[in-house]
Design brief:
By secondary structure, the protein is an alpha/beta fold. It contains 13 helices and five strands. A five-stranded parallel β-sheet has the order 2-3-1-4-5, with helices on both faces. Helix 1 packs across helix 5, helix 8 packs parallel to helix 9 and helix 8 packs across helix 13. The chain is globular and about 50 Å long.
């Protein structure tokens, strides 16, 4: 093939794109990288090719690990959908690939599921490649604590590639943000001029705030995808190594891959500055958030039990399920 014909072929393949078979969704620190590793062992491939990275991802977000396609009408319809599919161009032709997946931590607003479904669930084509959305869930309070650890560890190493250095966060800072939630205020607002916007505390505040919408998110995913929506509990994955690989294999109709140790959900243990999610300070955070989060935990427990027979009370902070 001549260089000119090869160039035209690349342009054509980029323009055509590929519909991913699987979408991984989940808030940061809840195990999306772990799930991606499981999909990789089943023959999945999710890293955008170099040309898509260079032309599509780097100008928009400055890195290529995740696509994080925005949840707006434009991005999932017409030309926006066309551009989204370009991220996966030619991945399906990879010699080791069984399927293509999209791993993103931005599909966690209730508006996202109907937009994703409109772009990927081709009801007029029963043999279309899309098969499932996997949503990684983790205990909201432990996730915020884990984010605190993540910020602090990054502030020690300062090697994350970010253009700024995080400021250290103490458990007292997290409890202070929880106190705002407890009285109906938001600990973080985009565009707000405060110290929360000037440090890593913004990520913890935003995570605390986001978790309150989890029941709406679950409801939206179930409504759009029904049995093709598979929520997975990160804490259970830590205790039962076969849990996620088995769920992936059953959902995709593949032989189960051999279990291998992967990164844990809350993976900073042992790093300088790491604080365990136990002890008086963590208990104080749970106590502060109980009035705000207990209804969320109980709602989520009912949703996952009805949808998948999953009992969150076995894996998440038990005080949140106590009705006494």
């Amino acid at each position: 093939m001549t260089r000119a014909l090869l160039a035209n072929a690349v342009v054509h393949e980029l323009a055509t794109g590929t519909v991913p078979t699987v979408v991984i969704a989940g808030v940061g620190k809840c195990g999306t990288n772990y799930l991606a590793g499981v999909l990789d062992r089943h023959g999945g491939i999710g890293s955008p090719p170099h040309d898509a990275c260079k032309s599509l991802l780097m100008p928009r977000q400055g890195y290529c690990d995740e696509i994080n396609w925005p949840c707006t009408e434009w991005h999932w319809r017409g030309n926006g959908r066309h551009t989204y599919l370009q991220h996966f161009a030619r991945l399906g032709n990879h010699s080791a690939a069984r399927f293509v997946y999209d791993q993103s931590t931005s599909y966690v607003a209730p508006v996202c599921p109907p937009l994703i479904a409109s772009a990927l669930v081709l009801r007029s084509q029963p043999k279309a490649p899309f098969r499932a959305v996997f949503l990684m869930l983790c205990d909201p309070v432990r996730a915020a604590w884990s984010r605190m650890n993540d910020v602090n560890i990054d502030s020690i190493y300062k090697d994350t590639g970010q253009s700024f250095a995080w400021a250290q966060i103490t458990p007292a800072d997290v409890i202070a943000m929880a106190s705002l939630l407890a009285v109906g205020e938001r600990p973080f607002k985009w565009g707000q001029s405060s110290r929360y916007n000037l440090s890593g505390e913004a990520t913890v505040g935003a995570q605390l705030q986001f978790q309150l919408k989890l029941p709406l998110l679950i409801q939206s995913y179930i409504a759009e995808f029904n049995s093709s929506f598979v929520p997975l509990v990160s804490e259970r994955a830590k205790q039962q190594p076969n849990y996620v690989p088995t769920a992936v294999a059953q959902t995709l109709g593949l032989p189960r891959a051999a279990s291998e140790e992967t990164k844990s959900v809350h993976s900073q243990a042992g790093s300088p500055g790491y604080l365990s999610s136990s002890g008086d300070e963590f208990d104080a955070l749970v106590a502060k958030l109980r009035g705000v989060y207990a209804p969320v935990y109980r709602k989520l427990r009912g949703q996952l039990w009805q949808h998948r027979g999953e009992d969150l009370a076995k894996w998440w902070v038990p005080e949140m399920f106590d009705t006494s």
